[in-house]
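Review box. Two proteins, two foldings.
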Amino acid sequence: MEALQGLVEGINGVVWGPLMLMLLLGVGLYLQIGLKGMPVRNIGRAFGLLWQGRTPGEKDSGEISSFNALMTSLSATIGTGNIAGVATAIALGGPGAVFWMWMTALVGMATKYAEAVCAVRFRERDDQGNFVGGPMYYIKNGLGKRYAWLGVLFALFGTLASFGIGNTVQANSVADALSTSFSIPSWVTGLVIMVLAGAVILGGIQRISSVAGRLVPFMAVAYLLAGLIVLAINYAAIPEAFLLIVRHAFTPISAAGGFAGAAVAAAIRFGVARGVFSNEAGLGSAPIAHAAAQTNSPVRQGMVAMLGTFIDTIVVCSVTALAILTSGQWLDGDSGASLTSLAFRTALPGPGDYIVAIALAIFAFTTILGWSYYGERCFQYLFGSRAARVYRIAFVLAIPVGAMAHLDFIWLLADTFNALMAIPNLIALALLSPVVFKLTREHFAAERQAANQG
């Protein structure tokens, strides 16, 4: 077992190491330049498309609305990374890590845009008439038979990651948070999540997207409001927090209190790694949800999809980061969710702990829902649509096991498979980038022509 753990740790060090982070940033930057900054320039317009996407057009084909496709994607990305991941980045890389999280998000918007464009462009119908897509399908249909093995690899890694990062570790996080704050036994938490998640997951993508469309906006707004209250209480420290973020993105920060200090390389490494872990841009998970969107325009869905990265990192992660930095508690040596809890508790004695625990529980629950769909589609790609129900049952039964188990090795394994998903996806995005650029040019040229004729 020790030898196996050592092997996985070695692989993890490579797949989440500097080369992988450079690959993620490099492909994203290449796409952003190739798109001439279109994703960043069109954030406002994308929000308009998201609002319109609540009601599909009569000629739009797909399984779920564009709005619910984004909510399903966000349900899987807004999770422990927004609470524990941000705190870990600051604890290990200092305030400068937040700056590099922002840079990762701005680059990642182009990656997420390209993923969704390819997902809609190369999606297909399964034998039950439902739209299916994602990296395995745009590899198969966009790159041809020569690259089919890459699609199989992605589906395999996605299936395995869904039971780890999307299931057992999420259930474990909820059980731990509720046990610490409310003294609820882990087995009770596991059974309750299994029943609630099972009722949604067994209903398929329509039910998952419907629940996500209601729960994700509520949970995100509620958490943001709580975070803004903390910032309002600590308002005098906000300018200094921004100065710390910018200054220490480029200069080392010395040890102070319980904080061990951090070099610029640590700020970049942990900022980029935690940014990618939080918004999943480049990992290839989100396009699986966007492929089911009711739309006939890959570009319009791509613009909606890129908001996932913006909302997750630029908005939600920033509120967590500023709450931690303005509280001053980042200097005390804590890390992870306990650091975020400490920051909220300092500003809001009493309810602060409960706010973070409840937010963590809801975020993790919706992550389970979103990842169940990702894993199901990967499993279906490998074994056919009839295997979907087998996957759903196995996925639901794994939840209480995760809630009650000690998951150090599972965390490591899941984190590794999560990163391995990115390799075939990034190769496909780089090779399909001319298609993305061409579709984008044609879409905006047609819009300009229509405007001139009007």
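Next protein.
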Amino acid sequence: MIKPIGSDTLKPLFVYDSDKHDALMHEAESLPSIVISSAAAGNAVMMGGGYFTPLTGYMNVADAVSCAESMQTTSGQFFPVPILNLVEDISAIKDAKRIALRDPNVEGQPVIAVQDIEAIEEVSDEQMKLMTEKVYRTTDTEHPGVAAFNSQGRYAISGPIQVLNFSYFQTDFPDTFRTAVEIRNEIQERGWKKVVAFQTRNPMHRAHEELCRMAMDRLGCDGLVIHMLLGKLKPGDIPAPVRDAAIRKMVELYFPPNSAMITGYGFDMLYAGPREAVLHAYFRQNMGATHFIIGRDHAGVGDYYGPFDAQTIFDEEVPAGALEIEIFKADHTAYSKKLNKVVMMCEAPDHSKEDFVLLSGTKVREMLGKGEAPPKEFSRPEVAKILMDYYQSLNG
């Protein structure tokens, strides 16, 4: 099986031993505590589940800046983005050496992790600007990722963490949320050797479904892991429960048994395009995938990135030998009226735009809101039904 990054085994930071867990929960009640940002809570969930192996906790400013600049910490450990615990106010924890981190996304703000403090540093305007520019390729505050990153606060609390729960992801998505440890175990149980992962923050239409099939066929994969983001999105994106239901229906009806796993992970979307694509590949290797699909404008938003920047970054910027997972580079896929099947548009040079069934996201949302199913060449009717019900509930 493919090895995790920088380690022979996964290093989940969740405290699985029940006695230790109980003792830490008890200790946490007497520790100075701080409510962390949604992004920092997502980082804790990812570290807890082993996705960010071999990180042991939140980075200090030097490591965060170094990762932003070169995708490596100051010691040379590969990591594509800064993993920070940024807060606005440190008055409650000033002289503490050990603190409880409270979850902003769950009622009552329960303790999500305990952190040993190695340093509390103020991040300068120049450092924030540099990290923003390197990771997001823009400092435009209209960019949802830039806005979220710059609104967390300016004090970076670094040091190792012990994770005590998986926020709302395990309770809200019991059938879908999986740790990297659990996915690795299931891949092994299914006997899969070659595994391709597909990232999604949207429902899957025919083009996505066929793209996954193409990748499986061309790579000779035993299995597909559909791995959906379950964290916070920008306004207007379809909520995770609706996406989950639509994807499950598609797999149940249109994929052979034991060919696809439906899973999800707890993290807020960065919308960082190329840099987020590298992060996506990083934790897919950690969860056991040997291949990862990256299509057009992967993890992008608006017009901030070129259509294939998220593919070229692997050749141009990722340090040599940093990743073992292989990237399946895909073009836009669409249904060809000439060939009566979904194709990659770059593989149909004799086609004009009129030869494809192409609908904009806006047009699809409009149709679904009116209770009109998109053409069957674009969306499976059973999937469209779930989405229509959702959009009509918004208008009701």
